[in-house]
Amino acid sequence: MVLCTVPLGVLKKGNIQFVPELPAQKREPIERLGFGLLNKVVLLFPYDFWDGRIDTFGHLTEDSGQRGEFFLFYSYSSVSGGPLLIALVAGESAIEFEKTSPAENVEKVLETLRKIFSPKGIEVPKPLQAICTRWGTDKFTYGSYSYVAIGSSGDDYDILAESVCDRVFFAGEATNRRYPATMHGALLSGYREAANIVRAARRRAKKVDSPKKMDVNNEVKYEVKVDNIDLDDLFRTPDAAFGGFSVLHDPSTSEPDSISLLRVGIGARKLGSGSLFLYGLIMRKNVASLAAMEGDEQRLSTLYRDFGTKLVGLDGLGDSGSSLISRIKAAVRK
């Protein structure tokens, strides 16, 4: 199995040869989606001259052809702990930016900052260090972020996220319909595909390890052992399901204070479609309250704040979680 995480720009460029070739259903969204260019100038100054309490500030130019040049500044003083300022360059200006030397671009940024702060009597010092990105010509990116171009749609993100025959998997911001063009979107897509690869490996292992039997047409079938019951199989028919939440109750009791197993799908358009799953333990009596709420965001907030439930991986459920899962599986065997 292979996980492909290269940016959409590299896929659009066709520099990676897939053997066999990717199916048309996969190639088409790659062609339809757009991949834009946003460059940055990162400046480290000896001190914070712009007032670190300001997160962002903008700059307007009289020349409409340069409206994307250093149009927005981000202050990272409160985040990085140092006097760090980032200038953004977009549109046609981002393309021209890469044709100019870093030294010239840094000087242009400083000139822009002087125009903003000199009238206020504030001197702009020379930066201690400066970095200029060149994402458009970088052979490992060929751009910065994906976007829905004319002729494409959000569905293209979902198609791009699909695996090819459970062999080639795809992650990256351009595979996350909910959070495209973001770092957290890329991160969540990695979690999602890690879960998908594990599930694919388990399915393959079941086929290899399970005893064979012949069906009425003398074709080989695989019989899955009941001892190897997977949680995915159990959650296909949950005791309760709402939004991205699904619940399995303790089959040994119906007490309101008994513990139930909660699963939450994160980062997918619909539950079970390439989701990253997190788990938690919740009292049965609280399930109905969650189901009655509007939206998963409110449910998650209530889950943490009011019910004290933490969402973790399966290994983080502890002994109580392991015992509950064992009881649920045992009930299926009967």
Automatic annotation (TrEMBL):
Residues 2-197 form the Amine oxidase domain. GO terms for cellular component: nucleus. Pfam families: Amino_oxidase. Belongs to the flavin monoamine oxidase family. This is Amine oxidase domain-containing protein. GO terms for molecular function: flavin adenine dinucleotide binding; spermine oxidase activity. PANTHER family: FLAVIN MONOAMINE OXIDASE, LYSINE-SPECIFIC HISTONE DEMETHYLASE 1 HOMOLOG 1. It comes from Oryza sativa subsp. indica (Rice). GO terms for biological process: spermine catabolic process; thermospermine catabolic process. It comes from the Eukaryota. InterPro entries: Amino_oxidase, FAD/NAD-bd_sf, Flavin_monoamine_oxidase.
